[in-house]
Design a protein that fits this description.
This protein is mostly helical. The chain is built from four helices and two strands, in the order E-H-E-H-H-H. It has one domain (8-79). It has a two-stranded parallel ribbon. The chain starts with 7 loop residues before the first strand and ends with a helix.
């Protein structure tokens, strides 16, 4: 996704959280859905830009300061 590739993933995994609306989710093992998703991805190259933007916005080091979030979670648990 960071390289503007359009993701296709199974809706039975946690990939949907990463993919969001920047790719296609299919039922695991459904060949027809896979073929359709690949065709749609080929026909919609602009979705790759959306995939990259999603990764930068939600999963880059700049957007997520993991150590800070972990520190906040631990502090909140200690205070309870």
């Amino acid at each position: 996704m960071a390289c503007e590739s359009i993701p296709i993933g199974s809706m039975y995994t946690s990939l949907w959280e990463v993919i969001g609306d920047a790719g296609y989710l299919i039922k695991y093992g459904d060949l027809e859905q896979l073929i359709t998703a690949i065709s749609l991805a080929i026909d919609n190259p602009f979705l790759g830009k959306s995939a990259r933007e999603r990764i930068i916005k939600n999963f880059s080091r700049k957007s997520i300061n993991r150590s800070e979030k972990l520190f906040q979670i631990i502090n909140s648990l200690i205070k309870e």
